Records
---
Amino acid sequence: MFSKESPIGIIDSGIGGFSVARKVQKLLPRENLVYLGDGANTPYGNHTAEEILTMTRYMLRFMEEKGVKALLVACNTISCLIDQYRDEMSCPVLSVVQAGADAVKDLDVHKVGVISTCFTASTHCYPDLIGKAAPDKVVISHGCPDLANVVERNVGRPEGQALIDADVQKNLEGLVRDEQIECCVLGCTHYPLVEENIHRLFPGLRLLDPAEQMAKDVLAYLERDGLVNDGPQPGRLDIFTTGSAEEYTMKAEKVGLDPVTSVQFYPPMKL
Ligand code: DGL
């Protein structure tokens, strides 16, 4: 039903999933990628579970129509609810939270911090999944009320860097200075887009970007099912957004996505 040339779908509330798309482009440069960011309704982290599920189903229908051979839920907030929609897709659906929890298992550290949206933190999905994969780890989860939104609006804008820095500082200093975490999981896909800011403000703090593991997971699935695209051409990246195509074009380039084949507007669902 799927072919090697079928695209891989990537969804997020906004531009956060670009951090996943760039890891997939690096590991699987011949795969065709279709990205959908719900720029009109971002951020998701301050919505209710019911609203998040409604918006997610709208994106699932879009991806089903595109005939994706795998769907990467490149949004931790949406991944927390995966058990409620996974079976509605005809392809495998991969969770970035599961990827993050699996990656923690292999770390040689004891005390791990997780920063995420408030919704993700409220579901306890990271502590629960890490607890299953690596019961010896101590996990301290912290919800950041506004950081995803600050990143969404300011990535790639020199005049927005001070706002990003202030929010990173506010959310991380307790975990680093008081809790003395040994590693911090970036439990929202927007955060790896400002990894440089975090390194500058907290030099020496080890960071874990779940996207790395997610890219390996999709490769393992494609290899297992004989679906790796081994054609001669570099893969396409077609980006769709319910927000501004112009903004997405600028930000995709700033965060290092390459190639970007097209950026198009897709009508948002009305909540
Ligand atoms: N990038 C999303 C995540 O990983 C969420 C940001 C949001 O819309 O609140 O959770």
---
Amino acid sequence: MMRKKIVAGNWKMNLSKDEALTLLKELQANFPSQNQCEIILCPPSIYTELALQNANSFNIGLQNVSDKENGAFTGEISASMIQSMNVEYCIVGHSERRQYFGDTDTIINSKLKQLLKHNITPILCCGELLEEREAGRQNEVVQNQIEKAIVGLSNAEIEKLVIAYEPVWAIGTGKTASTHQAQEMHAFIRSILNSKIGDASNKISILYGGSCKPENAKELFDSPDIDGGLIGGAALNANSFLQIAQSF
Ligand code: 13P
């Protein structure tokens, strides 16, 4: 079954306004005319308008959303605000948010529900820590993250998700999961989804993230269950990001 190929760039908390603008213009000027995938940019939310105006060939996503609807929640951004900006994607449950900002499985579940309610496609991140992989617990950890994230979602809602498998030990470390390790986990994730929604699980794009770069993207993306990538460091350089996006 055909499913969407996606390459998304997570800029994290990087770049000044001028640097962001330079990168956006470079990306826009070099937008691949024959790309095989959907390309999403997720700049810091303060640059959303800048991205919409200067890189309009790309889809735009945010890196986080509030689990609350609206109101007295200083510093937060709601799903309805994201929707009102015509932004179509939002990352949820990134390991950095789980690790440093207290995003629990329950909060991630509420964030997913907010996004789906406002018609924004969530890019749901999951992935094990190094010690969990060393203890052979990676499947159990990822299964638990996914099952808790999707509690209360209808089958139709689950079908709308994009999943990103990002082993924490591969993020920003230069250490990529081997193609075998990644494919194995992606197939496992699809089997979890299959047990919930059956064959519709074949429509869900599962992205790999963690030190993905032009040198390893093609081999990873050639695997049957790896439908693209969520790119950190390499997304801050127009050349390498676009090269990755053309690795199908
Ligand atoms: P790196 O590509 O820098 O390892 O980051 C991956 C990531 O966390 C994307 O969300």
---
Amino acid sequence: MDASEPRHDLLTVVVAARDEAQALPLLHPRICAALDGLAGLRTRVLYVDDGSSDGTWEVLRGIAASDPRVSLLRLSRNFGKEAALTAGLDQVGEGAAMILDADGQDPPELIPQFVARWREGWDDVYGTRIAREGEGWLKRGTAAAFYRVMRRLSHTPVPADTGDYRLLSPRSLAALARLRERHRFMKGLFGWVGFRSIALPYRRAPRLAGHSKFGLWRLWNFALEGITSFSTAPLRAATYVGLLTALGAIAAGVVVVVKTLLLGDPVAGWPTMMVVILFLGSVQLVALGMIGEYLGRLYDEAKQRPLYLVDTWQPAAAGVSCTQETADGGAHAHATSTAGGQAG
Ligand code: UDP
Ligand code: MG
């Protein structure tokens, strides 16, 4: 197979899992069933064990032993979902990739619809949640606020209510692989890549088992990550807050001078003084904090550490679909009918 030619007959489902030993045995048969329904496509499933501590790896070994399409990647420790996904996508190599959560919140039954869009020529088919079942109002509300802020502050398009549940065409995947920044706000990275993207609405299901690893504090940090990775507006904000306070100070100064000239200078002004000092002090601290956020990220990037380390890589025994046997000759036949985003 010509390495320079994108493969339109191969799809790899990439699943990052941390402590999903209960959910994975329920999820895999569903993925398998969905892939079985795809004609003319060779499929693989790649599970990334992101430093699980609950026997996820053993469960995955079991799945791989009974399914020759499954490849496994085990990271040396928990690197976080973004790094785990990156590790998985790096292994895909050729063809398209479909990203799925391990907890069943992204229904694998929709994979054929994603593939259909890809065949129509879309590069980035992303799932958009029309319902977030099993999520409280707090999570929904903060999520909505986050997307609004993101839209205002950043020029990179980050579609609302969109996660990592998506299909990436070979060229999108190749583009993404070139973004090696350490602080990985995936939705932003997908948006940055661009190409032809289309939303696919779906109902987000509750988890199959276990609990979310993204609590409020982690979500807050996630939001910080998103904003600082894709916008420098907060850095500029300090300038404008400073300018505004300076204007206010000049106005207040004029008032004080005029008042002193007209009314004399009785000893006063304690409260005003305290207010001004405290206000300026806190504005400066906030501005310093913002600079610190960016500086810290710069420091992390400067260290140039790898994004993840691999403990074990276990390739699939065979890259065949459930219904079809190895179809290498059919590869080129499909390349013409499935544009996969080459035109664009
Ligand atoms: N995940 C991961 N590494 C982590 C945390 C989570 O690979 O450090 C995986 C997790 O197993 C799941 C997906 O990322 O497949 C989404 O995580 P979770 O369900 O906890 O997040 P939520 O759906 O609540 O946003
Ligand atoms: Mg989840």
---
Amino acid sequence: MTVVAIDGPAGAGKSSVARGVAQELGFTYLDTGAMYRSVALAAAEREADPAEVARSLQMQVGERIVVDGRDVTQQIRAPEVSEAASRIAADPEVREAVVAQQRRLLQDGDWVAEGRDIGTVVAPEAEVKVFLTAEPQERARRRAAELGLDPARVLAEQTIRDERDRTREHSPLEPAPGAVVLDSTHMTLADVVQRIAGLVPGTRR
Ligand code: DC
């Protein structure tokens, strides 16, 4: 069992990079942000306590994100869900329940897991830990292009969420001890993928 942990702020390229590394190594990709997003969406729709939702929600997190039997892959990317996810992710009870689900998943098999606290909290024993970052303007530009939104608005909202993710009391965003810090601002996706795949022991590179 091997875990590659990729943490970092929004827009650093974690999802594309983690997918690429998983494909390169034949590992399974885990998008942990999708789990916080799913909890946020379900809690808003049900007007329910997010911690309660986090403890009971059935989530399938693969190519498609399926929550209680419903495909929410598109819906969880909406800006209002991003905002709600960032808020509920600061709740320690929500984190406890979501982290427990993540640890269960990572028990078996080989994974590339991406998020904010994989190397620090979810899988501190991960074989490879990467903290992937990029300059804020570049991160906003990438997100805006991906979602077809205005870059200035994305940058403004990103700044607020970054600040909240970084300064929250529970599991703030920070590099794990021993993490390789990679700045992707001037790197291509393929370069970042190769760089990380090359860190995994037992791969022929
Ligand atoms: O990576 P993302 O944008 O899909 O994450 C959505 C929100 O969830 C974001 O505000 C940070 C939070 N999150 C977290 O706190 N811990 C994780 N492991 C993954 C995401």
